[in-house]
Amino acid sequence: MLSQVCSSGSQPFRQRLLPWVQSTALSRSHRVQPSAIRHVRSWSNIPFITVPLSRTHGKSFAHRSELKHAKRIVVKLGSAVVTRGDECGLALGRLASIVEQVSVLQNQGREMMLVTSGAVAFGKQRLRHEILLSQSVRQALHSGQNQLKEMAIPVLEARACAAAGQSGLMALYEAMFTQYSICAAQILVTNLDFHDEQKRRNLNGTLHELLRMNIVPIVNTNDAVVPPAEPNSDLQGVNVISVKDNDSLAARLAVEMKTDLLIVLSDVEGLFDSPPGSDDAKLIDIFYPGDQQSVTFGTKSRVGMGGMEAKVKAALWALQGGTSVVIANGTHPKVSGHVITDIVEGKKVGTFFSEVKPAGPTVEQQGEMARSGGRMLATLEPEQRAEIIHHLADLLTDQRDEILLANKKDLEEAEGRLAAPLLKRLSLSTSKLNSLAIGLRQIAASSQDSVGRVLRRTRIAKNLELEQVAVPIGVLLVIFESRPDCLPQVAALAIASGNGLLLKGGKEATHSNRILHLLAQEALSIHGVKEAIQLVNTREEVEDLCRLDKMIDLIIPRGSSQLVRDIQKAAKGIPVMGHSEGICHMYVDSEASVDKVTRLVRDSKCEYPAACNALETLLIHRDLLRTPLFDQIIDMLRVEQVKIHAGPKFASYLTFSPSEVKSLRTEYGDLELCIEVVDSVQEAIDHIHKYGSSHTDVIVTENEKTAEFFLQHVDSACVFWNASTRFSDGYRFGLGAEVGISTSRIHARGPVGLEGLLTTKWLLRGQDHVVSDFSEHGSLKYLHENLPVPQRNTN
């Protein structure tokens, strides 16, 4: 039995460790200064994060992002979290995970306290075992074995279960915390302890002394003696709260101890605007005092004293007392292993209680506005959508001075903080704005034949016709770094394709993005669809945005390879269009033209080395080594101050080689280039497939047969012959602009313009047709005749 192991079998183990644990606790009795960095072991796969913990208590945190500064934290474990589904015994896996997370935070220098349920469930398990054992012995002596199956377990009184379970529960916590070199101490309280001033001072002093010695206090109501909760006993203002369950106990304790954060774990994701499980229930991300009128509470949890209404009341009382509160799910197997650390890191988990309402809409509200606005946008006539884009193009040139002034502010603030390639991406100029306007007008022209275009028509049977038509994808989330010129491009493509749009730009381009978004909304306003494009200005982390799978249909990252990889990893249930790396190759064949090679290499590498379509690896045929052509390439790279990294085969040919490349799969994004030697076009293709990223790859040769072999066999999104890698771009392809370059193999590949932002739907028009008419003995037969597709007038 688990209870026997914890109460007796594990006792010698604890006795052996107790002196060491006590000495460890005493050695930690001097609290590390807030500014100090503590280097601690990692006992788990949860990374330790050292952060400055300094805060004057008195006012709760206004935003989730500030929770990482919480120093003193109370974690309340509801009965549904610590007990098994049968309510008899503890959920050991969840409990071990919670202890691990609390230990990680404790070893970061925080002061952790637990308010835990579970004694009744643990005691019930022990008493049921004892009753079954005694009944089986008595029946074996008096009635024989044949009646053992008919034994009935009497209803167990909760106080007796609590008395029997407290020692075992605490022994279990001690054993678990010991694995992380942390000592825990048990404190049992009742409501009377808070009403007696002397007992309150004693409790406060005890808790402070335990925290000073780096010991985790584990607090619970003394259910063995506590009377039943009074029906009319409830929250009674700021200074008084009746401890009638562990929710109210946790709130009272948090305020008494001037705690920064109270985490309440239950068996639901947080607070919903209607009972969880109902059709229209939506999780409330942030709850503000006064919002309780808009919430309908359901029944209480399957075990325990309180329900969600009790948790909300306790949370609001704690919030009023200066403690931030988060209510979250501690039972979900996919999140329970990191729910506490995620909350402290400021991630969007559960419901955060805040006294500060944001000035604008929440990101969820912005998603809903983009959805409804996008649907209205899709219903406009093509000419109306084109008019909006033309107006936005005019605004880019008419408001040029205001745009450049805002961009200048961004550049001044970024000076010294961003690398030179990023500063170049951040910069706007008159020529850039003029190019943007030209590109937008190209998009406007192409938008005439996009949404609603009939792609296929089929006569299924007489008077039963099927159409496949182009329609918007829905709501796009575009995340971009240091590229304010990306905003009007993406906005125009979203308008042309009838998609709603959420934009999340980097903070380094705040001023530029703000004015460009205002201009986009001004253009949209001419046909009453202003809300179709939203700029996310809240403190939402990118990872949190990637979880909005019910609001977002496609994520398009525009930025570094690391940003793309992070988004691909974070996106749950939302497709991501993009490429994680731009490792572009150029193969110089033995029959390459001397006049063409240096021009193509210079343009591909040096014209804009930070771009994703810049050259990163130059493959040279072995026969070209020690030839004038090879010398010209090297001399040009030296003049352009390109740092060369030698591939393994190239290095083997040289007596004094440049620095050997660390990896052949590297995107430098700067004036650096890897050079490698190959023996044939096939070896070049094999190298590209092994080390490339399926972005853009080029062959330079005068042999048409070799070139066609390369074009047909290289499996990349863009494959060129005698052309710079930099042509891999939506504007240069005549798409007007692009939302990005995709290396995926479904939906869209290469530079993604207007067509890549559309999907299809099927329209079937009939006259009382039913499937049974087409059965073996039915009256109708399938025709499946292809019908001509109507052509739109795009002039």
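[next item in queue]
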Amino acid sequence: NPPHSSQSCLSSFVVLSPFSEGSECIKANAQSCGECIQVAETCGWCAAEKFLTEGQSKSARCDDLESLKKRNCAVTTIENPRGSVNINKNKPVTNRNKDVAEKLKPEQITQIQPQKLTLTLRSGEPQTFELKFKRAEDYPIDLYYLMDLSFSMKDDLENVKNLGTDLMREMQEITSDFRIGFGSFVEKTVMPYISTTPARLINPCTGNQNCTSPFSYKNVLNLTDKGDEFNRLVSQQQISGNLDSPEGGFDAIMQVAVCENQIGWRNVTRLLVFSTDAGFHFAGDGKLGGIVLPNDGRCHLENNMYTMSHYYDYPSIAHLVQKLSDHNIQTIFAVTEEFQPVYKELKNLIPKSAVGTLSSNSSNVIKLIIDAYNSLSSEVILENGRLPDGVSMNYKSICKNGVEGTGDNGRKCSNISIGDEVSFKISIESKKCPSHGKAEIIKIKPLGFTEEVEVVLNFICNCQCAAKGKPNSEMCHEGNGTFECGSCKCNDGRIGRLCECSKDEVRTEDLDANCRKDNGTDICSNTGDCVCGTCECKKREIPTEIYTGKYCECDNFNCDRSNNKLCGGHGRCDCRKCVCDANYTGSACDCSLETATCLAKNGQICNGRGTCDCGSCKCTNPKFQGPTCEICPTCPGVCAEHKDCVQCRGFEAGEKKDTCQDECNYFQLIKVKDRDKLPQPTDQSFPLTHCKERDANDCWFYYTYAIRNETKEVYVVETLECPAGPDIIPIVAGVVAGIVLIGLALLLIWKLLMIIHDRREFAKFEKEKMNAKWDTGENPIYKSAVTTVVNPKYEGK
């Protein structure tokens, strides 16, 4: 934090957006620097003594940093402490190879880095650091085999008797430092879990079966690196029996976890193999046997036997999860196919645990353990201890091949091989200072590992300037307060900006008179409260709108507006009047003194046809308009305007030929031989117009018009371009030829149409001829040449 100086700050107000971050700081109504920095990380406190104006309360010192600077608070007097991250212990992760002759002790191996950090937290400001994790090769392993010795596991016991040496041999591929232990369990030794008849207490099995007395949990072999010792002791074990199907395995798991010294756990990878072919009892089931005391989670082994099974209930699942996590034990449930669904649900509740399918006689137990260990060791999951009130943590994982995870997935990385390095970005944020104000310690560790990271949290609860406060300062009305961070912090029982009033002696009638302007009736102009005879102005819903003045008669928001902006956006509102920025004037600072917006393309202000007023052109001739008086709807163009004068001076012709000397001397004329010699727009640094006009004889003349250094220049091509006369003979010949050709074309078209018509008619005739049918009857007008006469007298004789 920068050192303080005694430089005072001039008071002024800047209108800010109501949605600025500063509003959050002002709304908090912080009465001290310590309160201010707890609001948000963007808030700062101006500790300059003369920063406040009349009517402003102490809380006006708390604002966002940019607003404080704009309000003329010197940077050296702004209190804005920041958080930090300091690494105290940063031992690099171990690069280890099991083939190397030199072996390291477990405490010499580092898999997580760094090991200790100190974070300084300011409310609302997260601090982020990175943790690295690397699986060390040849890391030591302790494995404890916990077996159900109820009668149904008889054949399994035979296969486990040689487990020690076989498992030691297989584990040599993973680590050169391996230890194994063995324990067994049956059930609580009370009814109704076992039979309590004398004979059944000696031999709980029926028939000719020889079984050992029932027991809850027995530690048969502490963790050892001697596989043959495991085989020897396990070979001596006998099956026992109980009455109900669920077993008392949870009692055994609890004792294995908490009895570290008796079991012989080291600070290495700890594996607990839980082998059974039945379900489990849990908290509450003890009531069946009259056991109501909850499990105390302590070690109760005497002569390697659990002695309090009849006194304490079974532990709950949550209790087991806590103890297994506290003691960094990873659990492998080796259970038969029948109980797979039950133990898979249990696995989901116990972090860093696995479930394997045990064959009916436990013949596959070694493969099951190896597979489960590889699955557990390939995943790292971070957990942290209890967080102080108001503190939150966020995790982001950067795993193998750059795969990132956030949220719940930000705590873990999977598929990690030996030698792989992964990292976690952890962000810690505090929302408030703890009530005790002391440092807190949280620990972060990967589940199933003994290593942990210690994070010390220090909280910024006050400003540095508070340490320089002067108790009973004369600046606080006869020593009635502590002067710190530019303002008075009143002693108990005192109030007022300078602690000038006592809560017990305040008489409103006498003091209100000091809060009326000009002996009026309004107290503090109805915009403030009279406190100890001094007006403290009210705050508005929009924090950047402020009342000020001895009687709160001023404000910074009731000024003229332009374009819906206070003071046109070009000034500040000071006591209801606009104080304009440079180059602006007017009651609403809406009149610009700049003339750049009035410059025309020719470099002249308003094209020389008007004046620049408030940044815009006001044309003197009403026929001109436009932003720079460049538009004249009723005026001819530049070329048409100067055509007659150019024609009379360049060619001694045109309508102004007789008055040329009087009316056309306003420009300088330069003649060029051809159009290529005319000035080009790309060659000029001033506006230039190219013109093409026609005279009365239909001849074209070309010229340019420009204004350079207020001198009007006209370049004109000295020769006219007149069209040549028409050639009569080709025109007449063309017309005659055209008429003939058109006539021939019409005759050809007529002939073609007639041929087509005739062919259609002939085809029609032929078709009718083919379809005609001829009648074979006699001609009605035909008379035969033969006349036959019959004799009427002839009788045929």
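[queue empty]
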